[in-house]
Design brief:
The structure is a homodimer. By secondary structure, chain A is an alpha+beta fold. Chain A is built from 17 helices and 18 strands. In chain A, the strands form four sheets. Chain A has a seven-stranded antiparallel β-sheet with strand order 15-12-14-13-17-18-16, sandwiched between helices. The first copy, chain A, has a five-stranded antiparallel β-sheet with strand order 5-6-10-8-9.
Chain lengths: 461, 461
């Protein structure tokens, strides 16, 4: 048993007693809860519990709080900064059984789901009602986890991130209190915004058990387009001007030449190996035509070549499959290696400059790192292709990553647009927020005085 | 001197010493800072200070915190729930001199302003750049005050409220710390969302001194429409279906028959005295035409009559002037009286039911109360026309208001969509948020342990 948690034996006894087969110390199951999808090193919890209800979560938290045992909530384990790695051991609360869609309203365009419902599961559930939920991080993540990391994805430029799309949450606090953060009205000026406080709190303040979300009507018409550029500036300026003109582009994604090369090789395609924009337009039939015509003109003015436009479902799917496969495509460049996906976001006026400087820096390194950007948000990822057992490569990636983050911060950007702080970005929180971190710590201390909720995340000890 | 604040004399001496002519105890000036635009009773502060900088605000707060003297920040004083009335006396910090636009970026579609810049001032400043800021509470409020009350207005259905449109804030805490709540990137997953915590905190956690805001490109084309209905259900269903189809209507406002009668009389117009929708569409020339054609069809299916559509600037201005003059129009129904504007917001599926039940309740009362609704958000106001010196009328309005709020809460709505809690809605905070209020109080206590920031607001003592 872990020496980190002196009262763990006692806690485990109580949990066995209360939860029977829904609690386990099985080594294999603990192992699967020791990691996420990042390059960060695993850490094995002392036990894993599978609650069935808010009340059971409340009971678990009360027990752990009394014994000062760490608790980490676990959804799909698809996070990218070690956000769910139980670095202090303790109990993992696997939300597996909390996976029901509780209600959907076609009239209100909203729904309430338990935290472990995944985004694809939700979309399957609501599509026959003509509805969809747009937030799409790469993985088929759980809605609770997406709320906890303030996730976004390719549609955020039009539909917002989890920050804008969560209507309310049910949260269980470390002392067992069950809170609903707000009513279901679209807006409210009644008191502090508890919803937004828990969105992005990465399980450090409480466990999110239910989420009410905005939904959207499936657009009458969808078109996609792809266009390559001779320079990153041309692509970035196309994005800036598109947004400035108020063209309601649904997706506008930038892949650099390295990424395009990987995509071509992986998916047997023959796109030009150049900085390329992938776009999607949602609206009426006339609307999407007009939007793409406008963007085509803007792209042309910025040196865009071979603007290809389609409403055909099969062609659209092929195009977006290529975009969504970037991680696999990158991995295929160097079989057996891992992808360290980093993530910064800058004001859009700085995007070209930040990317150019980053690529220049990268060109001096031995590492390959394809780039993909949710350009409409000023957000981009580098995927360092590394051998995680090679300390030199880890060191080189760390140094490149640190310079990238300091570059983004110097441009009034953030050290993470959508992956969260986890353990990977902890050292940059002060650089980004300065004295603001002291306020965050005050909130943490008053909500979780025993520091049991996902300790060792967000804040350096 | 106020007996509420034993150390007020000492505090005043220090403030005179430090701020000279920028501090005053002049009775007339104190009187103008004793009230807002609501029916709530005035309360006179002990002194008023006019800081020039963040550092001066910091100094004021340190002094007041040391002496445990209440501090209330004051912008334009246009709030509607007593939010800035210094009910415990103390010092009012009038932000008058903090009224500069600090920066505007055309490329990033954003700006940073000092808190006392008003929304019209900002729009005048940016219009030559082809930009605008959409949030429009009735009054020409200060941006800082709008952030503090989580304001919205007629454009929120398309552009969001202050919650969605504030990028970051500079906030001065009661202990004098100066915090910037985040960087300027469009999205971030770095730590707790301090920005959203201060938006809507009504001056109870700190003083907002600077605000970075999203801006939008002025649409290529704007059209307006007006349409009357035989029933509130027809109007509400038109709104629901418009939003469900994803038609990006910029404004969709519902005025009831009583309000339309007032508007006609006040502005010498001859609209049908029926439940009426006022709409605005933003987009390309073809886009706004298509949008309004779609809505016209929806309206027709729901019994809408005389759908009138225009892109003509003069006609549009006339139409929206009628909408914006509702308060004056209501006042003109009973000269010498006040308007008690109340404010609830419900899920849109409940809007017709909530309005119908409210009008039925109202029909049994002696009071007149025109109704105006930001229907796209499910938000509506009743304007009780009252003689504030008549306790029977106040009592009747209070009872109607309480029933209205409990009705909205029972429909999963909120006791205030955009006016804030202030003093007027304090008694409903627990009914709305239950145990969540205890979390809000924990935040309040840790940020402001001496309870000097706008005490007696949001939370009942």
């Amino acid at each position: 048993m872990s020496s980190l948690n002196p009262k763990i034996d006692q806690t485990i006894k109580i949990l066995i007693d209360k939860f029977g087969n829904n609690f386990t110390t099985n080594k294999g199951i603990r192992n699967t809860h020791s990691k996420d999808e990042s390059w960060h090193h695993p850490s094995i919890p002392d036990g894993v519990v599978f609650p069935n209800s808010n009340e059971e979560i409340s009971e678990i938290l009360k027990i752990c709080n009394e014994h000062k045992v760490p608790v980490t909530a676990f959804g799909t384990g698809t996070c990218l900064e070690g956000n769910v790695i139980p670095t202090s051991g303790g109990i993992v609360v696997d939300m597996e059984k909390m996976n029901s869609v509780l209600r959907v309203s076609q009239e209100d365009l909203d729904c309430t789901v338990q935290a472990r419902v995944t985004r694809k599961q939700l979309n399957d559930y609501v599509k026959d009602l003509g509805l969809f939920f747009p937030i799409d991080p790469g993985a088929d993540a759980s809605i609770g986890g997406m709320a906890a990391t303030r996730a976004s994805g390719t549609n955020a430029v039009r539909y917002g991130t989890m920050r804008e799309n969560v209507l309310n949450l049910t949260v269980i606090l470390p002392d067992g209190r069950i809170i609903r953060t707000s009513k279901r009205a679209r807006k409210s000026a009644a008191g502090y915004d508890l919803t937004r406080l828990f969105v992005g709190s990465e399980g450090t303040l409480g466990i999110i058990s239910e989420v009410s979300l905005k939904l959207f009507g499936i657009p009458e018409s969808i078109s996609s387009a792809v266009c390559s550029f001779n320079s990153i500036e041309g692509a970035a300026n196309t994005v800036i001007q598109t947004i400035q003109l108020g063209i309601p582009v649904a997706r506008i994604e930038l892949l650099d030449d390295v990424q395009m090369d990987a995509v071509n090789k992986y998916s047997n395609l023959n796109y030009p190996v150049k900085d390329t924009l992938f776009m999607e337009f949602h609206g009426t039939e006339n609307g999407v035509k007009e939007q793409s015509q406008l963007v085509q003109e803007i792209a042309k003015d910025n040196g865009g070549k071979d603007f290809q436009w389609t409403t055909d479902l099969e062609e659209r799917n092929k195009l977006w499959a290529a975009r969504h496969d970037v991680t696999y495509a990158s991995k295929a460049l160097r079989p057996g290696c891992d992808i360290w996906a980093t993530d910064v976001c800058v004001p859009i006026s700085k995007l070209a400059e930040c990317i150019s400087a980053t690529k220049k820096d990268l060109s001096k390194s031995s590492l390959i790192a394809p780039l993909v950007s949710h350009a409409g948000d000023g957000n981009f990822h580098l995927g360092f292709i590394i051998d995680r057992d090679n300390p030199n490569e880890i060191k080189e990636a760390e140094e490149l990553n640190e310079r990238l983050i300091m570059r983004a911060l110097s441009m009034d950007g953030t050290c993470t647009g959508e992956h969260g702080i986890g353990i990977g970005k902890m050292k940059f929180l002060n650089a980004e927020h300065g004295e603001g971190v002291s306020l965050m710590r005050q909130i943490k201390n008053t909500f979780d005085p025993n520091n049991i909720m996902n300790p060792g995340k967000i804040f350096t000890p």
